[in-house]
Amino acid sequence: MLNFSVFVGQRMASKVVYSPRDPMLKKRDDFEDVLEERRRSSDLRYALRCYTPVLYKGLTPCKASELKTMVLGSDQLHYVVNQVSRESGVSVDEVQAEASVILEEMAQRLQLSTIRFFAFTLSKVFKAMFRSICVNEEGLQRLQQVIQEHPVVLLPSHRSYMDFLLMSYILYTYDLPLPVIAAGMDFMGMKVVGEMLRMSGAFFIRRSFGGDKLYWAVFSEYVKTMLRNGFAPLEFFLEGTRSRTAKSLTPKLGLLNIAMDPFLKGEVFDVSLVPVSISYERVLEETLYARELLGVPKPKESTSGLFKARRVLSEDYGSIHVYFGPPVSVRSLAEGRVNRSQFSLVPRHIPMRPSEDVHGFVNDAAYRLVRAQEDNMVLKPWVLLASLLLQNQAAGKNQGVPLGELIQQAVWLRDLCRQFGAFLHWPDHVPPSEVVSSSLSLHSGLVRVSEDRVFLALEQGPPCSLTAEEELLSQAVVVLSCASYRNQVLHVFLRPALLASAIHTASSSQKQDVYNNFLFLRNMFSNEFILCPGAAVQDFEEACYLLTKSGALHVNQHEVLATERGHRTLAFLTGVLDPFLQGYQLVCRFLCEDATEALTERRFVPAVREFIIKHLLKGRLRYPEVLSSDLQRNALAALLRLGAVQKVQGGEEPGALKVNRVMVNSLEDTLGGRLSTQKALRAHL
Amino acid sequence: MASSSCGGGSDRQMAAQHRLSIIAGHLQRPSGSNTAILAAECKAQASKPFVSSERRTVPRRRQEIMKWNGWGYSDSKFVYNKKGQAEFTGRRYKLSGMIIPGLKDWMENTFGATLQHKTTATPALNSSAVPPPTLNEAFMEELKSTGIPFSADAEDRVFRAHGHCLHEIFALREGKIGRVPDMVVWPNCHNDVVKIVELACKHNVCLIPYGGGTSVSSALECPPEESRSIVSLDTSQMNRILWIDEKNLTAHVEAGIIGQDLENLLNESGYCTGHEPDSMEFSSLGGWVATRASGMKKNIYGNIEDLVIHIKMVTPQGVIEKSCQGPRMSTGPDIHHFIMGSEGTLGVITEVTMKIRPVPEYQKYGSVVFPNFEQGVACLREVARQRCAPASIRLMDNEQFKFGHALKPQVSSIFTSFLDGLKKFYITKFKGFDPNRLCVATLLFEGDREKVLQHEKQVYDIAAKFGGLAAGEDNGQRGYMLTFVIAYLRDLGMDYYVIGESFETSVPWDRVLDICRNVKARIVYECKDKGVQFPPLSTCRVTQTYDAGACVYFYFAFNYRGLGDPVHVYEQVEHAAREEILANGGSLSHHHGVGKLRKEWMRETVSSVGMGMLQSVKDYVDPKNIFGSRNLL
């Protein structure tokens, strides 16, 4: 950490010139509602219409079954099959047969008839559930162009099971080739649905296959073959799994690595990556996620479970916005970053661990793409209301906010948001009071309005029947659900909020002091939020720029000063980050006070949860959202990364944790602003 | 051949005398020149006045027969005649005097280059535009006393200031002259060179050896930062075959001889070297050695490194040569490999002993049409695997196939054109080849008649397995003929706003298709990116096969109308294309060399240690950087 700070200090001294573009000038496309047409014409005719998608110019036409033959006959696979056979002593034929079984379990069987079936049924379902499904047609036109030029990888954000059905539905609607989709094996549990998904282009991968060389070889070769031949656009989720918090997750690199490989090894001229941002006004899995985060295990995916979900059909889920971002060329990303001639010295069919520079490159690219997803996520007025209501709640206003005040706050926040370049869909032709009340009514499960006061719907049932802990948990479900909406807007406020908190805890207004604090917080929270590695200076400059522009700060050569009128903005921003700051401190305190020798990774979450519940019940903590296991895990990951906690290798219990109490303690103090970052850094030496 | 190294055994001398009398017969020199040959010593030493040998192609004053701002002979060029048809002038080539009806349309369709848009080159060299020479008086005085001819004439100097890179020719056409040599000197023999190099060292003069002037690596460009007097050492007058050894099948030749003269002279004695680079009309033996040249028929005869038995080079440290002519030696790293590819940075190659072969009894051209490039490459790979490559086998891509088609001369009879139509029908309609995908391989077989026919069958059988159809001798022959005239075509292009160039690489077999696709696509991409208004021609061919890979040649040209600085754009695109080649596992060069054009990639190509090794050789051999062309390192 010290090194890090010194390094950045130097960069600051040499005055890195970074001039952020004014985010308000960001140009974004307009939306069209695809359901509008569906409401006017026959779904059956739509499902049976002539479908002639544009194709990749270098396409080698082949059937899904021929793909399998190609994969099984590839040099890549032969090499690994022989290797596995040599190492395990199993005959080559048997290993090859095993590979064949793996492929059989994995492969998609894309069929137009299934797609037509989905086109029909989904039309019905979507019309029942959603007011509109809006897509940016210009994005689809760009996609159409690029599909003809290069193999395409679609990278949607992942917030719901709906995501990939929705993607295929839209592509079908716009006469674009249907993607093949990397899906988790858990879907296979649903027998009929699993097969249906397979026939609509999904291929299934095991959740973990760490050491299984053969599995990896079959899998990666299968993906690469589809990509090289331009069989169909490849679709997968960079975040790896659905985000339960609506915050973007740290990107997983495995599939992206595979998708970039054909370019890096010169097998294709370029690969186009298309980030897609899908935002739901109301997420289907809303309370399901909250329960999961609170430790109620998630129900296993099963077909019958899905049918039980039928009642969701009668509810109003508002609208969906799908934004197809500008395609990103892997070639231009790699320009000057990766020396591709490094692949010249080993035959390309021999699997190699990616070199450090390739790994760094893929990692940076992944972060950039997730940022691009965040950037084009449409924000509804409700996410602002959720942010405000949570802050009011934490401030102890249990009796709610007067509606008028909430409207006034919301308008203020709307303007701030716009100044920060957020993709906010606030209907300007409608009076703010109507915007607010219609948002509140859509989310009536989370928020109540009575006597012109607005408050979170914390009292669910007759209070007497529950224990204090049960009551707390049921309140937490509502708070966490709300937080998941607030989280949608976090990426807009994140950098200014880090700066605001840094100023709040800094010992002086010296730029260097503030920067050190900023750096500390940024480093601390880099498992929690999407913060591009190595972009600390840029983030700092961006935060300074935004806050100066909004009039909250005055930044000169040496000092960072809050202005008189900036108080409200800074207070709001520190409030945004406060639950996380408190949460991390509490996790630290748990590790210092309560953690026993027997603490393991597996036991960590239940133990820390118990600790937090105690604190909440005693009223020492104002934020029930700290109960989120996501936050707790991220905090632990940060501490592991910083070396404050270590995994004990080869202990009697797997994943045993060893806590460096001095370090954890000083981190806690620094988070709480009781210790300057400089001292903290020294202590860590 | 009073070789200074081989103490002069009398047997050897006698044998040499015998050999020389035979050669003298072969060479049919004008009477009186016998003594000149016999003078195993130098003509100049014998203080004989220099006699220009009429049999040789290149005179001291190159301007007498060659263009000053374009390729080749002054009398040979493509022009549009009054009817607006393309025509090739002169009488030197098979194509000379013929109308090429398809060329105009091809130029229009490929480049958007029309007759209306013409550029005119500066018609003649303006001597006043040539910077005055920086002469080293002391050097000149002493040189004068040796009797070696030299000149500081502007034309002579400009002729030796460039090779044939696009930017070099483009500048000449615009009448722009940069740094040129200050003087040209024409040694007649090895000993002349020894004297010149000694004097250059003594007076600290920079020497740049000049052979045929066909460099495409900026190797002949004078470093602008060079402040010393630059002397171009033109080897063109060192052009004799000194002896032929029929027992060992070798010939000892002065290094200034140009390719066509060497072949013609050897042919008269019934021999050939078989080394036929595309530039062989003008390039010199010394140049081949200095750049590690490769010939079209290397499959039978080998590349220059396989052909050379013995090399003599004059360096600032003295003369380097081996003491014997053993066919292979284990005596540490081969010193020949310091010389081959040294690109004029270490010294002047003066004499070379080369392998020779009897002229083959029978030659046969051939061609095969493939449905697509992938199949064609697969066929070449199989031919290489079975090690049955004919003397030459080349695979052109579809664009080049069409280009070759456009260069078909007007057919004389209706019958031939009917036959052509029939062939086309057969291939595209009957066999279902897509005219926009098919590609063609040209073949050249050489050897005993019987073996050639057998060989031919073997190759066609392999081709058939990859969907190849034999497409006749004519197509094949025309393919090879085009090799020699294509360089003239660039001059025509430049008259109509089209600039272009070729470049090459070598690459392992498994990457051939990838590199071809990616480099071609990169060229198109970069042209678009750099604002080129018309789609470029971006095409390739596989020109050589090896056990472990192939040599690939790229042609790239575009219409530059609307561009402010076309040469800069061109250079950016070529640079990008080279980056793409390296990124795809291709080499920096298969046979063009590095020169100054590709220097920037040398370190990554041979590693820092490798560079250090080369540099230390340079530092030892030429500490004062007398050979200051600054190529390679």
TrEMBL record, chain A:
UniProt-listed CDD domains: LPLAT_DHAPAT-like (cd07993)
Span of domain Phospholipid/glycerol acyltransferase: 152-281
Alphabetically ordered keywords of this record: Acyltransferase, Membrane, Transferase
UniProt keyword Acyltransferase present: yes
Annotated GO MF terms: glycerol-3-phosphate O-acyltransferase activity; glycerone-phosphate O-acyltransferase activity
Source taxon at top rank: Eukaryota
Residue spans crossing the bilayer: none
A GO cellular-component term linked to this record: mitochondrial membrane
Keyword match Transferase: yes
Pathway this chain belongs to: Phospholipid metabolism
Subcellular location, record wording: Membrane
GO BP: ether lipid biosynthetic process; fatty acid metabolic process; phospholipid biosynthetic process; triglyceride biosynthetic process
Main location: membrane
Pfam family, one: GPAT_C
Similarity comment: family membership: Belongs to the GPAT/DAPAT family.
The name this protein goes by in its record: Dihydroxyacetone phosphate acyltransferase
TrEMBL record, chain B:
Swiss-Prot/TrEMBL cofactor(s): FAD
Site (Important for enzyme activity): 394
Residues annotated as domain FAD-binding PCMH-type: 177-359
Alphabetized InterPro entries for the sequence: Alkyl-DHAP_Synthase, FAD-bd_oxidored_4_C, FAD-bd_PCMH, FAD-bd_PCMH-like_sf, FAD-bd_PCMH_sub1, FAD-bd_PCMH_sub2, FAD-linked_Oxase-like_C, Oxid_FAD_bind_N
Residues holding substrate: 490
Entry-linked Pfam families: FAD-oxidase_C, FAD_binding_4
Catalytic activity entry: 1-hexadecanoylglycerone 3-phosphate + a long-chain fatty acid = a 1-acylglycerone 3-phosphate + hexadecanoate; a long chain fatty alcohol + a 1-acylglycerone 3-phosphate = a 1-O-alkylglycerone 3-phosphate + a long-chain fatty acid + H(+); hexadecan-1-ol + 1-hexadecanoylglycerone 3-phosphate = 1-O-hexadecylglycerone 3-phosphate + hexadecanoate + H(+)
Function text: Catalyzes the exchange of an acyl for a long-chain alkyl group and the formation of the ether bond in the biosynthesis of ether phospholipids.
Name of the protein in its database record: Alkylglycerone-phosphate synthase
